[in-house]
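Sequence in, structure out.
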Amino acid sequence: MAAHAEPFPPVWRAHRRPWPVWPVSRWLAQVHPPVWVWWTPAGWGYVAWGAAQQVHAEGAARYARVRAAVEAGGWTWAADAVEAPPEAEPRWFGGFAFDPRPRPSQGWWTAFGHARFFLPRYLYAQSPTGRAWLTVLTRADEVPRWPSQTATARSRPRPWPARLADEEGMTRAQWRALVRDALEHLRRGALHKVVLARTQRLRWHAPPPWEAVWTRLDRAYPRTYRFLYRPGADLTAFVGASPELLVRVRGRSLETMALAGSIARGRDPAEDAALAAALLASAKDRHEHAWVVQAIREALAPLTETLEVPPEPQVRQYANIQHLYTPIRGLLRRPGVWEAVERLHPTPALGGYPRAAALAFIAAHEPVPRGWYAAPLGWVTPNGDGEFVGAIRCAVLRANAALLYAGAGIVADSDPEREWEEIDLKFRAMRRVLGEEDEL
């Protein structure tokens, strides 16, 4: 299937100024789509809007087609561009669908497609140390148009709307049947692990204000990768707070992680520690985690000269959940993030193992298409540096409704009731963001 890329001028000119540190809510109140907000656990953050160029692609060759468009793009620095760290340079933002095969009932994801990236006309970059820069891309014959620094945010933020409905995507009986079907495939040896997802739907009297969605997300989950993407002018957005780095590449240096096996946080430090110890001692969770580590090794071995994998997992804690975690570092044979993204997605933490069998089971049995849930999402530069996460702890919003996703890894000794409860725990992440004020 063909890719579409808008015409790209031979050279864009990049103008950059120091900028006051503005809250994201202030930007969201005044910028126009496409809009991308991206904040990392390390403290670097971006607000990108307007498209100098966009590319979207479908089908199995989507990675190659997007990569070609990104690598063809470029810019030269204008004489008025101030110095800034490399992290503040222009970059493309975007993501991919979980599965490139078309499926019916794609209504929630129509605006996103199988792959969509854009090079922003405007990029606000904020450092962990409290400095900020704004970069504007222009054509050679254009004069940059800078936003007004005297414009103020709304004096009265729009109120959060009242909720009308709260619906499960499947019944508990349907979930038990789905898990039993997966366990039968595991017993026959067709699968070692498969990740199954549930959905929940929320509806309000009116669309939630984007500024409030972001403020809640950022306040609740500062140790995650927070994102908000509005691809077009309609009231559609993909938002989330993912703890899962899929891959980060700078030059030949690569970082990734295995994040699989979960348990709740405790009500006090003693219970927290007891739960963490129980997670480390859980044969089921250790088994599930080991499949993820093994699959990452297999995926990256052809791409790396060295790969450092600790022998034992750690416990990594987030606001309402704890995970088994193994950090992984490597040295690539050739610089660039693209091959790693394609080979890693989906890891067994998000899809299953073996990959082909897991994807086939998910496509045949999950009742709701995943869209961009559990798929690669992030940024990349024309020279191949980039950072992608697995898009989990997320929701797609459309007008006055939201579709929330969460999943659990099914292995041979999985219990359907426990997996239902684990997914409920994961749903709390976005329900905390999208809930009523008294639920926060």
